[in-house]
Amino acid sequence: MTAHTDERVVLQGASPAGANRPYVMIAGLRSMEAQGGIETHVRELALRLARRDVDVEVVERLPYAPEPGILGGVRRSPLWSLRSSRLEAMSNTFAAVLWAIRRRPDVLHIHGIGPALMTPLAKLAGLRVVVTHHGRDYEREKWGTFAKLALRLGEWFALRVAHEVIAVSTSLSGELSRAGGRVVHGIPNGVKPSVPVGEPQPPLDFPYVLAVGRQVPEKRHLDLIRAFAAKDRGGLHLVIAGGADHQSAYSEELARVAAEHGNIHLLGPRPWDEIQTLYASASLFVLPSSHEGLPIVLLEAMSAGCPVLVSDIAPHLEVDLPDECYFPLGDLPALSDRIGALAAPEGQRVDWTQKLTRYDWDVIVEHTLSVYDVR
C-alpha cells in the first residue's frame, strides 16, 4: 500500500530479450511506483529476478507510468488502459497480452484474478501463463454484482486454464487447490528490512497510531476512526497513510469523518521510504480489514518493530501473532479497547524476527523461478 519513488532511466527503444536469458513479462499492476500490495509484490519480485540474470519486462498502466524506462534492470512498458475503476485492469491486461504475443516471453506472469480474465487469450496464443492469486477480490465491498461475477470468472480461468497458479497465502492455496482440483503453489508475500529515512513530511511531533492502506471500504478505515474516537486518547493521534485511486463516496465520507476530529489525520499516499519512517515511530499499527491476500503492510510494520493489532480474518491469522494482537472483525468496542491496551510508549519496539523468517523475498523469488520452470 505504499508508493515508491526511484530514479528512472528512460529507454530509447527496448532491445529484444537476450537469446540465452529467460524472458519474463509481468502484468496486472498499475505501476511499480504505485501504492498497493500487488504493486509492491511485483516490484520486489521483478528487481530480484533481474539480479538473477532474468530478462524482466513489467507492463504498467497509463497514466500511472507515463513513459518507458528501466528500474534496477527491469524494463517498464506503460500500455493503454481504460480510465475506469472497473475496466482499467482488464483493458490493460488485454493490451499486455497483445504485446506479449508480439514479444514472445518465455513466461507471461499475470497478477490478480481480474487480469486473469485474459488467461485464455494468452494461452490460445501459445504463451506460457502463470497467474498469482492475491486474494478473492469478489469479496471486496466496493464491487457490484457484475464486477464480482467477472472476478469469479477470472479466478475460474486461472484455476482451469493457466499453466501454473500461485497464491500468496497458505490458507488460500489450500482452498484453491481443493476448488480447482489442481496444485496451487503457496508462495507468500515478502518483506525487506525496514530502514527509516529522514522525517515524514510534514514531521509528526506527537505519538500516533498508524494505518496504511488505500481508501477503499474493505480496509475498514471508518471502523478504525470510530473506534479510536470512542475514547479519550490523551495526546495520542491516529494517522492514516494511503489515498484513493478514484474518488468515491467512501473516500469522501472518510475525509468528512476524519475532519471532525483534531487528532485524526489523513496523509494521503506517501513515498515508500517515508512510510518506513512512520512505522518506526508509531505507537501501534492497526489493520482492521475485512479482506486481504497476505498484507505486505503488516509485514512491513512488523519488520520495523511496530506493535500491531489486526482483524481476525484468515490471512491475518496465518501470520500467527499473539492472541492479544487480534480483534473480531467489525467489533468496534473490542477494537477501541485493544488500541488502548496495545499502544506502546514512544520508542518501545517489538522483535518480530522469528515470525518474519518465512517472508524472505530472496527465498520467495527462488520458489517463483521454480514455478516458471524456464532455467
UniProtKB/TrEMBL annotation:
Residues 203-319 form the Glycosyl transferase family domain. This is Glycosyltransferase involved in cell wall bisynthesis. InterPro entries: Glyco_trans_1 (IPR001296), Glyco_trans_4-like_N (IPR028098). PANTHER family: BLL3647 PROTEIN, GLYCOSYLTRANSFERASE. The lineage of its organism: Bacteria, Pseudomonadati, Pseudomonadota, Alphaproteobacteria, Hyphomicrobiales. SUPFAM superfamilies: UDP-Glycosyltransferase/glycogen phosphorylase (SSF53756). Pfam families: Glyco_transf_4 (PF13439), Glycos_transf_1 (PF00534). Keywords: Transferase. One of its GO terms (molecular function) is glycosyltransferase activity. Residues 36-193 form the Glycosyltransferase subfamily 4-like N-terminal domain.
